[in-house]
Amino acid sequence: MTRARAGARPSGALPTVLSVLGVLFALLGLGAASAPAALAADNGRWSVFPAPAAGAKDRSPTAQERSFFTLEADPGTTLRDKVSVSNLSGEPMTFRLYGADAYNTPRDGGFAVRGADEKNTDVGSWVRLARSSITVPARTRADVPFTVTVPADASPGDHPGAIVALDTRVGTASGDVRVGIRRAVGARVHLRVAGPGLAALTVENVGVGHGGPLIPGTRDSHATIRYTLVNRGNVSITPRLAVTARGLFGHTLLDRPARTLPLELLPGQRVELTEPWPGAPQFDRVTVRLRVTAVRGDVDETGGASFLAVPWAAVGLALALLGGLVLLLRIRARRRAAETEPPAQEDPYRAGDTDLAARAGGGPDDPGATGATVGGRTA
């Protein structure tokens, strides 16, 4: 697997070369039993693998009897072995050698190791190489002895790591932003410390993201099942995943038999994975169930989640149209009510009615109104 760190920034007139460390591992299988015996970790220019035994017939630069180191030890003991670094190129190469802890990348579970300047707390710190750097002539193999000293208080179980050969030269990439690249190749170390082994795994954070067409039936919908696997034991686990999904009335929507996932989950590690589901239902109440077992080991865990498969975009559009229609009908109803309402009648006794005042002989301020008319005379 590949692990790399990269950094780059705009260079202006003079590009700045930044260092990038990439640790390259050949895919040798997920366990010692499944790895082909004739492969080594290499990138075409150099390779790193366990050194052949002293009496091996083939002593060529590419000779190899083991794909990686498979070691077993009791706490407080020291193991001795040799690592071979083969220069496959046509010029001498200088390497920095170091031991490193291994871990799973969180997003996909890939096998990765600590960089040369990162702190190791497990098997990477237990490795002591006879040489920390070495220059290997062209098309030549160099065997370097090393020891692994297991602490007396080391926990039982698997302790994965690697022995890495880092090319000391820094390559550059062309472009406006120039990047320095340092490459490394490592041989895996599978160390098991004696003691009780526990295979334990949990399935957590199961969720489903659902998407579909704007208009139902015009194309297929899809879903993405997200989940987290956590190795809570002390041995590495190669998980197998089975997925089922059922609808509101119990009918089966998805039934995927168990398959081996392309990862080895190391002790204490957690990874976030996804499972695509093309052709997911467009309208249903769906319950998804995940069942995870192990290729080797007594592991059988489940996790699940439910979601409502609804074409939300279409529902939102329909609600918007319905709301607009209701608003339009209310406006039209108000207009009709205004058109059919009878006109308002005037009040004959409103203040300021001059006709009424004139008929009553004028008001109190009228100079001609000096009395009341009685019997045709003015009093």
Relevant terms:
mainly beta; disordered N terminus; 10% helix; nine-stranded mixed β-sheet; 45% strand; five-stranded antiparallel β-sheet
List the helices and strands and how they pair.
Elements: E1 2-5, E2 18-24, E3 41-42, E4 46-50, E5 69-73, E6 78-87, E7 93-104, E8 111-113, H1 123-126, E9 127-129, E10 133-136, E11 140-149, E12 157-167, E13 171-173, E14 179-193, E15 201-211, E16 221-231, E17 239-246, E18 252-260, E19 270-280, E20 284-294, E21 300-309, H2 312-340, H3 354-359, E22 373-374, E23 377-378
Parallel strand pairs: 2-14, 5-14
Antiparallel strand pairs: 1-2, 3-4, 4-6, 6-11, 7-8, 7-10, 7-12, 9-11, 12-14, 13-14, 15-16, 16-19, 17-18, 17-20, 20-21, 22-23
Give helix % range: 10-25%
Following the backbone from N to C, one meets helices and strands in this order, namely EEEEEEEEHEEEEEEEEEEEEEHHEE
Shape: elongated
Number of helices: 3
Largest sheet: 9 strands, mixed
Radius of gyration: 41 Å
Q: How widely separated are the two ends? A: 126 Å
Structural class: mainly beta
Strand content: 35-45%
Q: If you average the pLDDT, what whole number results?
A: 79
Number of strands: 23
State the low-pLDDT regions, or none.
1-39, 367-379
